[in-house]
Input
Amino acid sequence: MALVVIGGVAAGLSAAARARRIDPQLEIVVLEKGPLISYGACGLPYFVEGRIRDASGLIVYTPEYFRKERNIEVRTQARVVTISHPRREVTLESGDRVRYDRLVISTGARCDTCGLPGLPPSVFTLHTVDDATRLRTFLQEKQPRHGVVIGAGYIGLEAADALRRNGVRVTVLERSANLLLRDDAWWTALVRKQLETHGVELHCGVEAKSIQEDRVGDFPAGVVVVAAGFRPNVELASAAGVEIGRTGAIATDDRMETNLRGVYAAGDCAEVQHLVTGRPTWIPLGTTANKAGRVAGANAAGARERFGGIVGTSIVGLFGVGFATTGLTASQARSEGFSPVAVQIESKNKAGYFQGVKSHVELVCDRATGRLLGGSVVSEDGAAGRINVIATALHAGMRVEQFEQLDLAYSPPFATVWDPLLIAAQQLVRELAK
Amino acid sequence: MALVVIGGVAAGLSAAARARRIDPQLEIVVLEKGPLISYGACGLPYFVEGRIRDASGLIVYTPEYFRKERNIEVRTQARVVTISHPRREVTLESGDRVRYDRLVISTGARCDTCGLPGLPPSVFTLHTVDDATRLRTFLQEKQPRHGVVIGAGYIGLEAADALRRNGVRVTVLERSANLLLRDDAWWTALVRKQLETHGVELHCGVEAKSIQEDRVGDFPAGVVVVAAGFRPNVELASAAGVEIGRTGAIATDDRMETNLRGVYAAGDCAEVQHLVTGRPTWIPLGTTANKAGRVAGANAAGARERFGGIVGTSIVGLFGVGFATTGLTASQARSEGFSPVAVQIESKNKAGYFQGVKSHVELVCDRATGRLLGGSVVSEDGAAGRINVIATALHAGMRVEQFEQLDLAYSPPFATVWDPLLIAAQQLVRELAK
Output
């Protein structure tokens, strides 16, 4: 039995490693189109910033490691150009063919301009280690005074932070009104304030029509980072007859199998189930890629596992403040047919004598049932822990009346006796009673 | 209608404030035996340490605040000596009688030696603001070189930390083999190591038979803190016919009502439901006192609310490391009739370039059902957030297979892509499969 995995980053390598654990005999080949595997794409902005000194700090495992320690063959610079499922084989750009019994597709995602020809050399994307290395070198050599970031999603704003810390005056241009992909005025105001406090100029509802050597539209730009129009790489799969879902990513069942028997998909190219909406969603994140990849690999190797789905949890650090979110915003909830009620509070996360700082918490629940639908936490401290509590409650389908009584840890160095989460929940319960 | 609340700290004041919110007309009287109300008892060790400069920093509200802002009468130095439920009145030490329609008993707890006569002036408990003030003054005036703490529960070890930071060489004597009330060898070893690393000598299985002016048994002690033998103050209630539960604390139903109609109990004197065992428990903590007090107050004022119960979550900081725990230990689980499986792991909480530190995580689940029963987290960073995730899972009755797939927040400044919680869960799932 042979397993072929297309893609050697998060989902692909999780799948391969897990398959090996399930079946020590399986022949496993990972085909990666780029020169490197197993890099932490989420670390790229911190390499650009200069916090990670050497690009090797981004690499977790090498092909040699996989070969020797896991008995998994990893080929780099091995771009798959066609999948022939009837023949159970993939064809590489080089013309080589590789046979499979089981296939895991983890072809990732890209942004619109990735690899577009004809752009000035001052224009970068931030998707691969090579992208990050080129941008870092450019910043050090050219020391641009002004920069423009196109797109106010995670990568865009992390790039803005990284540029700013390199002394670049940054302008962010975002087509929509949303920051960090969230259609939530409260959240957007907090993000905007944090960016502006740290000298980042932000323009929403602005499309970058032209990118020149030294400017984007009217904005001076010695350096440009394009982080907009992210989309799943599905063309290869689609051409092979793999079904694409309504989100534009590869449709999968809860075993991460596609419509083609024995062909699995996971990572930034694939849909997963959203536990709050009960519907397929496409939220490309490393955590999901690893988990779903692991399930795809297990099933491809003959186990029977299911992926439990996601609730859409993420966090991004902007100039030292964590912006964390999970589940649905009120307006997302409304378009999913819920009748959402939302509250926003602001509360100290611990006593002043333990350097307590403000926590901003938003909770959203359904008016009819009280079921929690989502939440956000913004704070210099404790945002990850608190969003994870909300995420866990979403996994459990918890109602706000139950959430209000959570037995959370308290001691002065760590929290307040009424945790900001519980204060928000109390207020939401009062709103529900109105 | 008149509501009388006995006790003016956490549970009592939560009850009074909540009752006022429910019924603006209710006559509410709070009777506090001591001179102060509304102090953060959990802050006392930090006052002894010197981090909180002024005792007023421990006080949240004054009687005047309650009188003016909440229309609640608060009497201090008002010790209740008898409750006559047939006559619906309480009698104070002064001889005054106060009538009630509804009564909330929140008489708190004490340690064995609290107020014992005949002890040398170098012996302290740490239960009231007065205790802490006297100890702080003693430390500053006498600058003892050696100290003994009797009892290795929360207050004992926090006191040891506080003394150590005042330059005192501390020996802790604990009767049992348990540290921080936990019968768990893994946990105990971590606590012991942290204490010893910071120069605290620890002796378990040692009873302090005699306390002299300058020594406890063989151990030199210019200062002694007794933090052992904590027990609920139930004598007043018991004499009035209020039923005492098997834990020795006041038995309550899920509305925090006692066996006497219209008489409620909450806080360190009362039992609450443990959600993991489904049985009444006595775990005196400020968080529970506030939540249960709030429910008692609501019901006493005519609302119908229930207290959802606790899972036994707590955290204590020892020399900068958080020791957090929730639910049952394996041996507690065994004596509750479960067949526990436990794993312990050690994993970085984030990347090295973001000052990642080790997190120690223990998870316990039931072999038959996979249901999570408890866990612990020990780390310099993120212990509170992670224990709260486990606590939320316990509230939800989650199985480890579900917990393993939690969609937790990730980004390099905040976490690792496989959170230590998920790594522990994966290992526990593998243990279950054996």
The first strand of chain A starts at residue 2 and ends at 6.
